[in-house]
Every structure is written in structure tokens, then in C-alpha cells.
């Protein structure tokens, strides 16, 4: 954990670097411009009356350790050998890149030969259109008819037709709440997994569950047929943005009937755990039975966090629903195959698919700060991730969005000052903390990132800061080009001004 200042400032004292957001500039064409409240209101405060399970408001301020940029975008699918299910210790995990994206550092295990081959086969079958194209509805897959690619049963009685027909029956039963119908076409040993999946998907409020065969079925030596199945889904009433999941399956065929013989178990929370949910105005909060008592408290804080994050949906419409998964100890290390994430982190974002937080944090005084930080990643990074070089911007803006009253800034300043005195090089363009970094250094890096983003917003205005962020992180424009375009000043002079801000903080 990263610890902040042990003392509170005097009543009425202004927090260094605290800010009130201004309305962002005009929304991008086709985006929904969020309503900006006139005042943040008391709901944005992170202090509250003490209870038996949390400290009083006068207790020492503790700033939660945020999961770095490792999981801004989740695996866009999971298929054996699950090439995108990983947890990189230092950098964001890669996703199938859009043509204009710069590559990210990938862990050695991800680059295994078997994984590369599986990925190449999958990309060849869908076309290299990137994760957003994967999630879109109505995009036929390469090598398949439009009807089959859109989940419609093609005419004929081929093996593909029979399997797709069975999948469509599963989908129809799931959306209708017919558990018996959903599990009707499965083989021995699969009932528990299908029952758990059915219960979790229904609890999440699944609205779309659309099947597609990714490739042609291939017969195995035992007579079964193997095929990759893609599900396009979304959660919450009125949801429109679909997310893909791809799983490996095998089937037995008897006459006209296709029966599931094997079905890949993935590590997505709703697939790996039996979830319960609580739904707020803008959020769906999910957790296993062990954390059911914490759901409603998180909903209250998450709704308030969503109100803040919405105001920074500068590039795309704010999500219809923010999704929060509360993870117990074992779930924290297993969901999305994030076994290396470490207990010292409190939360991470997988973009619009949802954020994950540790269950222990559900009772903490700074819960709303944590949720606002992670929702800040959802609206600023989304699926347009940056690289490790952008770490200072991605984490800085998330801290900036969540620091409504200066609490985060106050908590980070002591370690920033120590870090500067030890010989900081004056560069605000800091990368992720080294693996062996102390808590103090990690906290200092976050603090410098927060001061840097706050400096840009104060000096040039929040709308220009957001445009600059979008150019660099989302469009991969070099700092040296984006700075004159957005700020009317060369980058060295801009950085020098913010370096002075850090040194004087």
C-alpha cells in the first residue's frame, strides 16, 4: 500500500493542486455530451460518518495503491491457448492492435510458439480490424457467409449448421431465463459449469448473447467435432456496445442433434464465479456470495464515482453501465488470469468491460476515490490504450479525475518531495515503477504524474489538456507535435514549467 500524509490540513486550507473540473470542450462528432452539474456537490466527498467497520473521518489519510496501466483493456476473447489471458507485471497487456497503434511490451510467456500460431489463425479468420471491430455487431467474419457470421442459422444440414442451431437455442433459453433449455444440449460433466454460467449471466443482466462459429468444425480422432465459438454480449438494460468472447468447444453429432462435449472454462469473472449483483443508477456491482453484503455500499459510492467520470467522457460517450467486480482473495489472482497482480494493489480497469477491486476495500473510507480513479481509466483510455511511455499520463489523469478535494494530492506529496530530493531527473514523462520499486517511489511516481496533469490543466485549461491527452495516448501523436498544436508552445518549455511545479510542490 502507498501511504499518504499522516495529518490532515487545517480546516479550510486549500489542498495543493486541488481542482474543480471545468466542462470539457465540444464532444467528438457522434458522441453524447455528458451533462455537467453546476457544482460537484457533497456526494463527491470521500469522508463519511465513522462506522464499526471503518475509521473516523479524522483518521490518517491513506491513499490506495492503484493498479497501474496493466489492464486498461481486457483480453478481447479467450480461446485455447488463451493468448490474451495474462498479467504483465510492468506494462499494459497487448490487445489485437489497430493498424495505427504502437505495439506494447509483451511478456515472454505470451510469445510462445503455440500462442503465436493460435493467434495468427484467429486473426486470419476475423481480419485485422482491431478490438473495436471485434466488438461491433453485424461484421461478418472472414470466410463465412453473412448469415452465419451474424449468428443466423444458415440453410442446410452441415455440421456447422447443427452446432450453430444448438448454440442459438442456448442463447434463446438464456435470454428467456429458461435454465433447463439452456442446459438441454450439454454432455456429462458440464452441468455445474453451465448452471454457474447461466446464473451469473442472468445476474449481470445479460441483454445480448449472440453466437457465431469462428472457423469450420474439425473432426477429432474420437469422432467429436471441435470449433471456436464467439459470443457477442452486453450487460444491463439498454446496453448497446457488444464485447466478444471466444471459447473452444467440442461436440458430438447424432442425427440432427449437436451436443456439447467440451466447453472451455475462461477466467472472466462472470464465467469463473457464481456472481450476485446489485444495480444502481449507472453501475452494476457483482461479487460472489461471500461478498454479497458489500454490494450495496459499493453501488452507492460507484454511482457517485460515475457522475464524476462521466464528465471526462471527452472522446466517446460515457458507458451506459459501469461494471464493478468485487474480488475475494482467490478471485483477485484468478480473474482474467491476473495471478501476478499482487495484493498491494487495490483495483485495476479492463476498460468498459469492467473494473476489479479487492473485497477488503469495500469498507474503506477512500472507496469512492478508488472507484473514481478506475472509472477515470474507463472514460479516458477505454480501448484506445497507450504505451508504457504514456504511463505518466494515463495514471496522472485518473488521479486527477478522482482527486476532487485534494486528498490524493495531500497523500502523495510527502513521497514526491523525498523523491525529488534524492535526485529526480526533472522529467515528468515517467514510465511505470520498476518491479523492485519501494512503496515510497511508487507513490512518488503517481504523485508526479498527478502534479504534471494538474499543471497542464491549470496552465492551459482542462479542455486543452484533454485534447493533448487524446492526441498522445489515444492517437499516438508525439509529444513534440501535440504540444505546439494544443498548447501553442514547444514541449521542452511545457515540461520545464511543470517540472518547476513539481519541485515547488
Descriptive overview:
It is a single chain. Strands 3, 4, 5, 6 and 7 form a five-stranded antiparallel beta sheet that branches. The chain has a five-stranded mixed beta sheet with strand order 8-9-10-12-11, with helices on both faces. A two-stranded antiparallel ribbon has the order 1-2. Among the domains are: 1-8 and 42-47 and 387-505, no CATH class; 108-265, Roll (Nuclear Transport Factor 2, Chain: A). The protein has 505 residues and is an alpha+beta fold. The protein starts with a strand and ends with a helix. It has helices spanning 113-126, 131-135, 146-149, 159-176, 179-182, 191-203, 269-272, 295-310, 329-334, 367-380, 391-402, 407-421, 439-460, 462-474, 479-487, 491-504; strands spanning 2-3, 62-63, 206-213, 218-219, 225-235, 243-254, 257-263, 276-279, 283-287, 322-327, 347-349, 355-358. The longest helix is centred in the last third of the chain and has 22 residues, at 439-460. A hairpin with a 2-residue loop joins strand 6 and strand 7. Helix content is 36%, strand content 13%.
Q: Count the helices. How many?
A: 16
CATH architecture of the domain at 108-265: Roll
The CATH topology of the domain at 108-265? Nuclear Transport Factor 2, Chain: A
| Mean pLDDT figure | 76
Low-confidence stretches: 1-18, 20-156
SS-based class: alpha+beta
Transmembrane segments: 104-124
Region (Disordered): 1-63
Keywords: Membrane, Transmembrane, Transmembrane helix
Biased composition (Low complexity): 42-62
Amino acid at each position: 500500500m502507498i501511504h499518504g500524509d499522516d495529518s490532515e490540513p487545517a480546516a479550510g486550507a486549500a489542498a495543493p493542486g486541488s481542482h474543480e473540473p471545468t466542462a470539457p470542450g465540444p464532444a467528438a462528432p457522434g458522441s453524447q455530451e455528458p451533462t455537467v452539474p453546476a457544482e460537484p456537490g457533497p456526494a463527491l466527498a470521500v469522508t463519511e460518518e465513522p462506522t464499526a467497520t471503518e475509521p473516523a473521518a479524522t483518521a490518517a489519510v491513506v491513499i490506495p495503491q492503484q493498479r497501474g496501466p496493466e489492464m486498461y483493456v481486457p483480453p478481447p476473447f479467450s480461446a485455447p491457448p488463451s493468448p490474451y489471458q495474462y498479467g504483465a507485471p510492468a506494462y499494459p497487456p497487448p490487445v489485437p492492435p489497430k493498424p495505427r497503434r504502437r505495439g506494447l511490451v509483451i511478456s515472454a510467456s505470451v510469445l510462445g510458439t503455440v500462442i503465436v500460431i493460435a493467434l495468427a489463425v484467429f486473426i486470419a479468420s476475423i481480419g485485422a480490424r482491431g478490438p473495436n471491430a471485434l466488438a461491433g455487431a453485424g461484421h461478418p467474419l472472414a470466410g463465412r457467409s453473412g448469415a452465419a457470421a451474424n449468428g443466423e442459422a444458415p440453410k442446410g444440414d452441415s455440421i456447422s449448421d447443427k452446432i450453430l442451431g444448438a448454440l442459438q437455442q442456448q442463447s434463446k433459453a438464456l435470454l428467456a431465463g429458461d435454465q433447463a433449455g439452456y442446459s438441454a444440449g450439454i454432455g456429462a460433466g458440464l452441468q455445474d459449469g453451465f448452471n454457474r454460467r447461466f446464473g451469473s449471466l442472468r445476474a449481470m443482466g445479460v441483454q445480448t448473447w449472440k453466437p457465431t462459429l469462428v472457423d469450420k468444425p474439425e473432426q477429432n480422432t474420437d469422432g467429436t467435432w471441435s470449433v471456436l465459438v464467439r459470443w457477442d454480449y452486453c450487460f444491463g438494460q439498454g446496453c448497446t456496445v457488444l464485447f466478444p468472447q471466444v471459447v473452444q468447444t467440442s461436440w458430438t453429432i447424432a442425427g440432427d442433434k449437436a451436443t456439447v462435449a467440451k466447453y472451455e472454462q475462461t477466467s472472466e469473472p462472470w464465467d469463473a464465479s457464481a456472481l450476485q449483483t446489485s444495480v444502481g443508477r449507472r453501475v452494476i456491482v457483482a461479487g460472489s456470495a461471500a461478498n454479497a453484503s458489500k454490494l450495496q455500499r459499493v453501488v452507492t459510492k460507484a454511482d457517485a464515482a460515475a457522475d464524476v467520470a462521466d464528465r471526462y467522457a471527452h472522446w466517446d460517450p460515457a458507458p451506459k453501465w459501469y461494471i464493478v467486480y468485487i474480488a475475494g482473495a482467490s478471485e483477485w489472482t484468478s480473474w482474467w488470469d491476473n495471478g501476478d497482480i499482487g495484493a498491494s494493489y487495490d483495483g485495476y480497469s479492463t476498460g468498459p468491460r469492467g473494473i476489479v477491486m479487492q473485497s477488503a476495500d469495500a469498507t474503506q473510507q477512500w472507496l469512492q476515490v478508488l472507484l473514481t480513479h478506475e472509472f477515470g481509466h474507463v472514460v479516458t483510455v477505454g480501448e484506445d490504450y497507450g504505451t508504457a511511455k504514456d504511463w505518466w499520463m494515463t495514471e496522472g489523469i485518473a488521479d486527477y479525475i478522482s482527486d476532487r478535494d485534494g486528498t490524493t494530492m495531500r497523500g502523495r506529496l510527502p513521497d514526491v518531495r523525498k523523491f525529488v530530493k534524492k535526485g529526480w531527473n526533472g522529467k515528468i514523462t515517467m514510465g511505470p515503477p520498476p518491479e523492485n520499486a519501494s512503496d515510497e517511489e511508487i507513490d512518488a511516481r503517481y504523485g508526479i504524474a498527478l502534479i504534471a496533469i494538474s499543471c497542464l490543466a491549470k496552465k492551459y485549461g482542462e479542455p486543452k489538456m484533454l485534447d493533448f491527452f487524446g492526441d498522445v495516448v489515444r492517437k499516438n501523436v508525439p509529444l513534440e507535435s501535440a504540444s505546439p498544436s494544443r498548447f501553442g508552445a514547444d514541449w521542452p518549455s511545457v515540461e520545464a514549467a511543470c517540472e518547476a511545479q513539481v519541485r515547488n510542490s
